[in-house]
Amino acid sequence: MSTFAVPQPGSVITVTTRYKSAYYKSETGYDEDTYEHVPVIADPLNRKNMQGTFCIPAEGEPFITFRTINIKNVIALEVHEGETASTDINIGTHHVPVKGSGSKVYTVVVVDGKATKCDCLGFQYRQDCRHLRMATGEHPVNPRRETVKKQKRKAAAAKRRKAPRNGAPTKAEQVRSIIRNRKAAMQNSKPEVVDIAKTWATTEAVEKLGMSRSLATTYVKNNWEKA
Fold it and tell me: What 3-state DSSP class applies to 20?
């Protein structure tokens, strides 16, 4: 995975590339080639959408006059004369390696500080992924997604608070009514008396409200002081 900046036309470089081998008996599975002291030339075909590539003459080749090299396939680069593209991620086009899950490493294309493309499956399906944000130093979690989730939760909570009850008391209000009646029947507030009153309130909630014993116990416990 290359971390080199793209050399500019007019530069003189020594570059080593690595591509997957087309020869099935290759020991490593890759072909490496080194081109020493070669000039970088402008794209003779003036092609568009060729960010992250550069061209060098194809000397000694009978059928081609130049080679187009993708910076992703460069494993060594030495600039003897001239300049490379700016190393500032906010200027120009950069191919930024980003570590994924496990041992996977993905390449994110960053153009003038904006991550535009990633070679992971998530980007292919959604046109978005956490690697885009990681490449530009942002938090990997999509802030918009988090904001939307929070907004939905707040809206749902507000809707529940504003929902009309049509005059019907809630379960909590009914349990508090039962508790108030039991408190009124208490002769004193000794702990043992309070425990008995809570037990009777729980039983009454089970019988009148159709609650399970455990749920009624929780309601009585949570609403005892509120009644």
Answer: strand
- What CA–CA distance (Å, rounded) separates 111 from 137? 14
pTM: 0.41
Measured CA to CA, the distance from residue 74 to residue 77 in angstroms comes to 7
Query: For residue 68, how many other CB atoms are within 10 A of its CB?
Result: 15
CB 71 within 8 A of CB 53: yes
Tens digit of each residue's pLDDT (9 = 90 or more) over 74-91 = 888 888 877 655 555 566
The SS3 call for residue 39 is: strand
**Mean pLDDT, the chain, whole residue set:** 82
Question: Would you list the DSSP string of 70-87?
Answer: EGGGEEEEEEEES-BPPS
Whether the pLDDT of residue 1 is over 60: the answer is no
Residues whose CB falls within 8 Å of the CB of residue 170, separated by 6 or more in sequence, listed in order: none
56: β partners: 67
60: left (phi over 0), alpha (psi -120 to 50) or beta: left
Phi/psi region, residue 181 (left: phi>0; alpha: psi -120 to 50; beta: rest), is: alpha
CA 201 to chain centre: 50
Closest CA to 198 of 172, 178, 212, 214: 178
For the record, the structure tokens of 80 come out as 């003897």
Q: Which parts of 115-225 fold into alpha helices (H)?
A: 121-126, 130-135, 143-162, 171-185, 191-209, 213-223
Query: What contacts 198, CB < 8 A, 6 or more positions away?
Result: 182, 220, 221, 224
CATH class of 1-85: mainly beta
CB 122 within 8 A of CB 129: yes
Query: What's the DSSP call for residue 33?
Result: E
